[in-house]
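Duplicate of #3305? Posting structure anyway:
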């Protein structure tokens, strides 16, 4: 009887822990969305054109879906050198493929490459920064046609990395031609829809 009570208590404890963990994750994602909204409202930080800034209230996001927050296996690509990343302008920043992440969404095995910036690599605040640009089947329909970005950090230990597509955001060039943005490499084109993160409403010039 004591053993059964122990298992019941353990089960309840695990459920409560999972619920608290879920609440913390949802809070984190909402904080990310609020931070993005506030940055775009700030004339000092916003990439919006003055006319768009006046009308801006908040971004349009897909409903938060934790099925698109995945644990990925990171395999570091040791021998990759820096290359010129193609952008929306003639600018060619130096990046290197840091590794490949492998994960599953809805039972489908997927992989993406993550990149490291040569310029940011030498800055203490960004020494663990990884850049994840990606395209999926929502591009040009519900999301920006060029693709979206996610920011990641090199794991402090092990080879597991959390990729939260609910935090996917648009490049600045989605809002203004004054910016130069990396174009998603072909190896990061996913043949599945990722209905998570930021949406994008087409402008007339995009049509």
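Output from current build:
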């Amino acid at each position: 009887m004591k053993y059964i009570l122990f298992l019941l208590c353990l089960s309840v404890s695990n459920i409560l822990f999972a619920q608290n963990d879920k609440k913390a994750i949802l809070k984190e994602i909402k904080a990310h969305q609020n931070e993005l909204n506030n940055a775009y409202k700030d004339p000092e930080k916003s990439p919006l054109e003055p006319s768009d800034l006046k009308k801006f209230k908040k971004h349009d996001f897909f409903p938060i879906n934790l099925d698109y927050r995945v644990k990925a296996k990171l395999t570091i690509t040791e021998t990759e050198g820096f290359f010129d990343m193609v952008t929306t302008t003639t600018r060619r920043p130096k990046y290197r493929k840091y590794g490949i992440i492998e994960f599953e969404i809805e039972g489908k095995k997927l992989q993406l490459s993550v990149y490291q910036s040569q310029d940011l690599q030498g800055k203490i605040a960004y020494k663990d920064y990884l850049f994840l640009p990606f395209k999926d089947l929502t591009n040009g329909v519900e999301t920006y046609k060029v693709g979206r970005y996610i920011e990641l950090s090199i794991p402090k230990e092990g080879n597991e990395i959390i990729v939260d597509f609910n935090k996917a955001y648009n490049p600045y060039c989605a809002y203004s031609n004054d910016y130069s943005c990396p174009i998603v490499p072909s190896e990061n084109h996913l043949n599945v829809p990722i209905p998570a993160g930021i949406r994008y409403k087409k402008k007339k010039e995009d049509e």
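Confirmed duplicate; merging threads. Helices lie at 2-41, 50-55, 118-121. The chain is about 25% helix and 25% strand.
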